[in-house]
Design a protein that fits this description.
alpha/beta, Rossmann fold, three-stranded parallel beta sheet
């Protein structure tokens, strides 16, 4: 008999705290690998980039499973006695409040309100021109529309959402890392 999986379906665009919490809690509650189904849509980041981001995050979190693309869907339907359950996973209240639509709106407006931290502020970062040009070239054709977006993602990676940090702690760490003065 083949291994069973817990299935999570979504656009995952972009992968945010609510998505991460859904996958993590599903794995913790069900104790089986998670099959993340990514709806194939025309949104940015591209479907392939979303898969790469999800796989990387699952690897970092040591959550076993797979990620696969499915066509965009209008619903999930089943007959009786299908041999599996359909369940809403309730996670922490903060994660439940995250709206993917609002995250996408904020990204489109280039708003600096981050879904991982509730710090609303812009930080200027000084970068040597050669490094700026290098990063700009490196991100061409990726999910990032600007060097600012790339730097913001690197900072999110530097401060994983499992850490609880207040604004002063974040600023102190940014200073130590040389991102701000």
């Amino acid at each position: 008999m083949s291994e069973k999986y817990a299935v999570c379906i979504g656009r995952w665009c972009p992968l945010h705290k609510g998505h991460k919490e859904l996958i993590r809690v599903t794995y913790e509650k069900k104790g089986v690998p998670v099959l993340v189904m990514v709806r194939d849509t025309d949104e940015q980041p591209s479907t392939i980039q979303r898969i790469e981001i999800i796989l990387q995050w699952m690897k970092e979190e040591q959550i076993p499973g797979y990620v696969m693309v499915i066509p965009d869907i209008i619903g999930v339907y089943y007959g009786r006695g299908v041999g599996y359950e359909v369940e809403q996973i309730i996670s922490d209240e903060d994660a439940q409040q995250v709206s993917g639509t609002q995250v996408r709106r904020n990204l489109a407006k280039n708003t600096v309100r981050d879904v991982y931290y509730d710090v609303v502020e812009s930080v200027s970062v000084k970068v040597d021109s050669y490094l700026y040009k290098y990063v700009k070239k490196k991100i061409e054709g990726t999910v990032f529309n600007s060097v600012d977006e790339y730097v913001a993602q690197m900072l999110r990676n530097e401060f994983p959402d499992s850490e609880v940090a207040d604004e002063q702690t974040i600023r102190d760490r940014l200073r130590r890392l040389g991102y701000i003065e």
